[in-house]
Automatic annotation (TrEMBL):
This is SDR family oxidoreductase. CDD domains: SDR_c (cd05233). It comes from Pedobacter petrophilus. InterPro entries: NAD(P)-bd_dom_sf, Sc_DH/Rdtase_CS, SDR, SDR_fam. It comes from the Bacteria. Belongs to the short-chain dehydrogenases/reductases (SDR) family. The lineage of its organism: Bacteria, Pseudomonadati, Bacteroidota, Sphingobacteriia, Sphingobacteriales. Gene3D superfamilies: NAD(P)-binding Rossmann-like Domain.
Length: 258
């Protein structure tokens, strides 16, 4: 699929590390001009990608990003709403404050809602575009010890994505959701450390506990971020032109339901 995205302008939020970086690099390698956002600019090379500093948990960030994209490029073909994180402490309902719930909703749901609202007019005007919202398997398989509020926010993102796909299909815009399971990222390691502290167990025990709650991973390993990037690259390409409103689980077979 080299050069399959030539001439396309793509935005990847949270695109400087982990899954977001892998997605941004895959889109760049396929020929797209890629814009990435994060709170801070990384020290390493951006591989020719244009960086916009933004905290997407803040409402004003979407307007800042939209303004810069419009001024610099005048169009946008692809949005990948990857920014998100499990920010809250483990321990279940009693450990979560109203602020914890709000933090999860702002970053994991409202960031995508605001970005899409700000940038969709550029796509609607040209009657073409693709949106990928990055969810996670905890949206449909929550782990109460560590993902209660995060799972609720991602479940809301799934519902929003399906509704948006139904609304925008007649306007030539496709919307799909990619839902990874365990992925080897700094965020995953941090989540395991948080869980280990809250339950007073080792990081290794916390990781194994999560794997056990998932019923195991049939492929026997977490995903590499690049494997998520490969799926996103396909879904934003013309090869996926009849796919919209779908949720793609990419979890090594860990979701043991139909």
């Amino acid at each position: 699929m080299n050069n399959s995205l030539n001439g396309k302008i793509a935005l990847v939020t949270g695109g400087t590390k982990g899954i977001g970086k892998a997605i941004a690099d895959k889109l760049s390698n396929a020929g797209a001009t890629v814009i990435i956002t994060a709170r801070t600019k990384p020290e390493e090379s951006l591989n020719g990608q244009y960086f916009i500093g933004a905290d997407l948990s803040k409402a004003e960030s979407a307007k800042t990003i939209s303004k810069q994209i419009l001024e610099k490029y005048g169009k946008l073909d692809i949005i990948v709403n990857n920014a998100g994180a499990n920010l809250t402490p483990g321990g279940g309902y009693s450990s979560l404050t109203d602020q914890d719930w709000d933090n999860e909703l702002q970053l994991n749901l409202m960031s995508a809602v605001r970005i899409n609202k700000a940038l969709l007019p550029l796509m609607i005007e040209k009657k073409t575009g693709v949106i990928i919202n990055i969810s996670m398997n905890p949206a449909i398989q929550p782990i109460w010890e560590m993902t209660m509020a995060y799972s609720a926010a991602k479940a809301a993102l799934n519902a929003y994505s399906k509704a948006l796909a139904s609304e925008l299909g007649s306007k030539g815009i496709r919307v799909n959701t990619v839902s990874p399971g365990l992925v080897k990222t700094p965020q995953m390691h941090q989540a395991m450390e948080n869980m280990s502290r809250s339950l007073n167990i080792t990081v290794e025990e916390a990781t194994q506990s999560v794997i056990n709650k998932l019923g195991g991973v049939p492929l026997g390993r977490p995903a590499e971020p690049e494997e998520i990037g490969d799926l996103v690259r396909f879904l934003v390409s013309n090869e996926a032109s009849y796919i919209t409103g779908a949720i793609y689980q990419i979890d090594g077979g860990s979701m043991a339901v139909v």
